[in-house]
Amino acid sequence: MTKEELKTRTKKFAIATFKFLNEIEKNKAVDIISYQLFKSSSSVAANYRAVCRGKSDADFLNKLKVVDEEADESLFWLEFIKDLNIDCNKIELEKLIKEADELVAIFSAGIKTIKSRNK
Checking phi first, is residue 25 left (phi over 0); if not, alpha (psi -120 to 50) or beta? Predict the structure, then answer.
């Protein structure tokens, strides 16, 4: 997958998450979860753009670690919504969980590859 394809994919993930959150159950507790998920999912897309502008392997690696952490946090919040059985579109929730899990795998693999090259 090219950098441009991954930029598009991370942006689509953020947009899909935003749309999902607009339809989710509303109350104080869920609003806090929604806010955290929106921040982490949009951070995946925004910070991946910064990765693509990395000035060195070390800079690239550090920025990629942030993206990996944010993708994993997004996955956590999505799983949390599922575990709490919050009223939402369950089909869309499963799609987002799958996508977050795949993004974590992609970024984690990228981090391993860069680390092995720099040994």
Answer: beta
Model pTM score: 0.95
State pLDDT tens for residues 39-72: 999 999 999 999 999 888 888 899 999 999 999 9
Q: Are 29 and 57 in contact (CB under 8 A)?
A: no
Among 2, 87, 7, 15, residue whose Cα is nearest residue 49? 7
Residue ranges of alpha helices (H) inside the chain are: 3-23, 28-51, 57-83, 90-117
Range of the domain at 29: 3-117
Query: Look-up: residue for tokens 């339809």?
Result: 23
CATH number of the domain at 7, please: 1.20.1440.60
The residues of the chain scoring below 50 in pLDDT are none
Residues with Cβ within 8 Å of 86's Cβ and at least 6 positions away in sequence, in order, are 24, 25, 30, 33
Q: How far is CA 47 from CA 4, 28, 29, 58, 77, in A?
A: 14, 28, 27, 15, 18
What does the DSSP 8-state code read for residue 53?
A: T
